[in-house]
Design goal:
The chain is an alpha+beta fold. The protein is 28% helix and 23% strand. The chain has one domain: 2-Layer Sandwich (Signal recognition particle alu RNA binding heterodimer, srp9/1), CATH 3.30.720. The longest helix is centred in the last third of the chain and has 13 residues. The protein is globular and about 35 Å long. A hairpin with a 4-residue loop joins β2 and β3.
Length: 81
Amino acid sequence: MSTENNHYPEFDYAASELSAYIFSVDFFIISLKSTKMIAFSPKDIDGFKNWLNKHEIRDIRVNDGIPEKVMGEVSQKTKRK
């Protein structure tokens, strides 16, 4: 596997097509920029995760994509009701 490569072996999508992922048990659920969701079970879980991270694909467990400022505003509105 080459981390310089935009494609991962046995994976049908280029890194540039990916938006975010989450890992569960032995497979990845991946959100594509086209809004399609896919599942992928790589032979080398750590290798695939490293490839995703090298290409800066967002890990939903680490970053849900909602800015903290927005979450704070939502929280404040919820408290007022």
